[in-house]
Amino acid sequence: MKYDYDLVIIGGGSAGMVAAEFAARLGLRAALVERDRIGGDCLWTGCVPSKALIASARAAHAVKTAPSFGIEVQSHRIDTAQVWRRLRDVQHEVAATDDNPEKYRALGVDVIMADAAFEGEHLVRVGDRSVSTRYALICTGSRPAAPPIPGLEETGYLTSETLFQLIEPPSSLLIVGAGPIGIEMAQAMARLGIQVTVLEQMERALMREEPDMADILATRLRAEGVVIETAVDLQAARTIDGRKVLSGAIGSEVREWSGAEILVTAGRCANVESLAPDRAHIDIGARGIVVGRKLRTSARWVYAAGDCAGRYLFTHSAGAEAVTAVRNMFFPGSAAAPEVIPWATFTEPELAHVGLTSAEARHTAGDKVRVFRWQLSHSDRARADGQPEGAVIVVTDSRFRIMGAHILAPSAGEMIGQFTLAIKHKMRLTPDFANLIQAYPTYSTSVSQLAGEATYTQLQKPFLRWLRRLNRVLER
Description:
Strand content: 15-25%
CATH superfamily of the largest domain: FAD/NAD(P)-binding domain
CATH class of the largest domain: Alpha Beta
Largest sheet: 7 strands, mixed
Number of domains: 3
Structural class: alpha/beta
Low-confidence stretches: none
Radius of gyration: 25 Å
Shape: globular
Number of helices: 16
Helix content: 25-40%
Mean pLDDT: 94
Oligomer: single chain
CATH topology of the largest domain: FAD/NAD(P)-binding domain
Number of strands: 23
């Protein structure tokens, strides 16, 4: 059968763009269908604007704390409207270059700005016409989800999709959710002079991270003026005298919190409803489109990648999944979906994570787990930079094979890559990392110091046994 396309990619976000470029490099007849703007969540509502905001907040904090480095600053005025203009300028620069639709058209990809939905076997409705395709790749991403708080819809709230559309931020903010997005925005907003209160349902912030690391970071945010409330049961939202009020309880204590605006950062849900997936017999689960280890859906000609597949909700994993899916379409059986996925919370200091936490590792391997920790306060670079708060934690099995790594440090997101490689290739903390020379003075020197401690632990018992045997021989 002759198809209009070898591949129709639905969604022009992180996964879709990577898939389109890869398909073009393979010489495939491909179409990239996007109903809104090329760039998706990462460019317009996620990574790019949030990191531009964090950069401005970091600059403001550097000016504020300059006297501690011997630098006197005469004034410290923050123009939040200009901060918001700058982040939009960054977005438009990316949109005009790397995320420009013309880039993909120049590669030979048909970029179609329209809605898409399935019509049947190998058929996709694109705008007002139907096209046939050998394969389809769903890359429709996800959108913010709101918790079921009575009155919240009527009161109104911001999400990552609307926060960066403002002319300037509100004077005070209630943030619902203490996950990575909530914590990043909390610190950034506070550094820009905005009163911030974070309300979290769980017993601590950043529940997916090592508890000690999350606690250190929460303490840092509180020292910068962020109010973080945990174990909060939110029960209602309303507006009183122009301010938005959330009411609830912490244990048996009834509480209320008010702010100029509410920002909800409490999870996401997959964008799948408008695709008419039932027409292609595509199964949908609680987290999104159901895929197998090769990223194929229940319809053999349809694959899914990125947030809509509900595996890992990160830009970098979306791109990796997109490449894997396209490879598996045209080179069957070549690759399973990536499982070793690092992530980072881009606060100051950054908190990066790959693999298992110590609790997850103990649940898997019991008492065979070893946990090694090196405090950043022992790092010469951290002392010089005035950033002694943090640590490197590495989780291994009994043979020192790395199961997980956690870094709380400036540039932790850059450092975590070496542990991603280590876990993927089943490397050991000792001797592999003990024999690895890191540049000095860098934060990565702490990794070598930690590995040295692990080596000492490994050698200590054999050495003591040998010493005892030697002493017994000498005593004779």
